[in-house]
């Protein structure tokens, strides 16, 4: 079974937000940790707090094309337009885009040019959004059906704990009716209220699986903010969820993600 992490961050700067406790986190460090955990590949979402992270992502993917792929980003300022998408997709290892959108640009229509560009190119776009914006994500997905969206971390913030962290899940699971929306079951241990195997999260994961299915729910870690090991993040899915087996397990642990982002 090929195991692919749906979201990590690589960067070389010495600073990071407080919830990312490992800084820097280089490709060499990630490869060492991935080998120890049995993780074959990882999707790098370049750190938005390090201005050099995009260039570093390209270099990491160029040097290790069988281990890293990238969902990159660029500033969504007044000068941004669809030409940036083609420019970005021309870089080594770049399979799509990913943005953190915590303001009204998601709801105002200001980014319609971006969704249109992604739709025309049929590329994946990762999103981290506020829970109240989930209905707007549904509307965008409906208008641009060839764009494939990936919702980060079950739309749960880095400091939220269960049960409060699950308050918005009905709105998240309602997105499952849009066939071009998938979810990343990433950073799940961070929302747990107990130690490994993080049983407090298992019902949430089953509900997510029932809503989106094995082909649209992707395992991952966001490893630089995990307080457990990468191997524990793997085995909580592979060994501790009795309902996740066989072909479904293979899809959740990597095959489904590879299909979604077109990573051969």
Short description:
This protein is an alpha/beta fold and 264 residues long. It is built from 10 helices and 8 strands.
What can you tell me about this protein's structure?
With 264 residues, this protein is of the alpha/beta class. It has one domain: TIM Barrel, CATH 3.20.20. It has ten helices and eight strands. It has an eight-stranded parallel sheet with strand order 1-2-3-4-5-6-7-8, with helices on both faces. 41% of the residues are buried.
Write the layout of secondary structure elements.
Layout: E1 4-8, H1 27-37, E2 41-44, H2 53-63, E3 68-72, H3 83-89, E4 94-101, H4 105-108, H5 112-121, E5 124-129, H6 134-143, E6 148-151, H7 169-174, E7 181-185, H8 202-212, E8 217-219, H9 230-238, H10 246-261
Parallel strand pairs: 1-2, 2-3, 3-4, 4-5, 5-6, 6-7, 7-8
Helix pairs in contact: 1-9
Kindly report the spatial arrangement of strands forming the biggest sheet: 1-2-3-4-5-6-7-8
Provide mean pLDDT, rounded. 96
Question: Which structural class fits the helix and strand makeup?
Answer: alpha/beta
Number of DSSP strands?
A: 8
Whole-number total of structural domains = 1
Beta fraction: 15-25%
Task: Indicate the CATH class.
Answer: Alpha Beta
Written as H for each helix and E for each strand, in order along the chain, the element string is: EHEHEHEHHEHEHEHEHH
Q: Output the CATH topology.
A: TIM Barrel
> How is the biggest beta sheet arranged?
8 strands, parallel
- Count of helical segments? 10
Kindly, what is the distance between the CA atoms of the first and last residues, rounded to a whole number of angstroms?
15 Å
Protein name: Amidohydrolase-related domain-containing protein
InterPro entries: Amidohydro-rel (IPR006680), Metal_Hydrolase (IPR032466), Metallo-dep_Lactonases (IPR052350)
GO molecular function: hydrolase activity
Family: Belongs to the metallo-dependent hydrolases superfamily.
């Amino acid at each position: 079974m090929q195991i692919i992490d749906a979201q990590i961050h690589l960067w070389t700067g010495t600073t990071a937000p407080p919830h990312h406790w490992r800084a820097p986190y280089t490709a060499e460090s990630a490869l060492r940790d991935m080998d120890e955990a049995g993780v074959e590949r990882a999707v790098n979402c370049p750190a938005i707090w390090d201005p050099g992270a995009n260039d570093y992502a390209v270099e990491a993917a160029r040097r290790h094309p069988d281990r890293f792929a990238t969902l990159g980003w660029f500033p969504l300022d007044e000068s941004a337009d669809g030409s940036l998408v083609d420019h970005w997709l021309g870089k080594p290892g770049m399979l799509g885009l990913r943005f953190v959108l915590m303001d009204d640009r998601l709801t105002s229509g200001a980014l319609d040019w971006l969704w249109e560009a992604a739709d025309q190119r049929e590329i994946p776009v990762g999103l981290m959004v506020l829970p109240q914006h989930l209905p707007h994500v549904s509307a965008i997905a409906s208008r641009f059906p060839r764009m494939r969206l990936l919702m980060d971390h079950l739309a749960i913030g880095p400091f939220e704990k269960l049960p409060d962290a699950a308050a918005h899940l009905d709105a998240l699971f309602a997105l499952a009716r849009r066939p071009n929306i998938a979810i990343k079951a990433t950073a799940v241990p961070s929302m747990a209220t107990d130690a490994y195997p993080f049983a407090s999260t298992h019902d949430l994961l089953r509900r997510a699986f029932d809503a989106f299915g094995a082909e649209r729910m992707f395992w991952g870690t966001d490893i630089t903010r995990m307080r457990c090991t990468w191997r524990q993040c793997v085995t909580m899915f592979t060994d501790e969820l009795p309902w996740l087996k066989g072909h479904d397990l293979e899809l959740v642990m990597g095959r489904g993600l590879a299909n979604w982002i077109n990573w051969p």
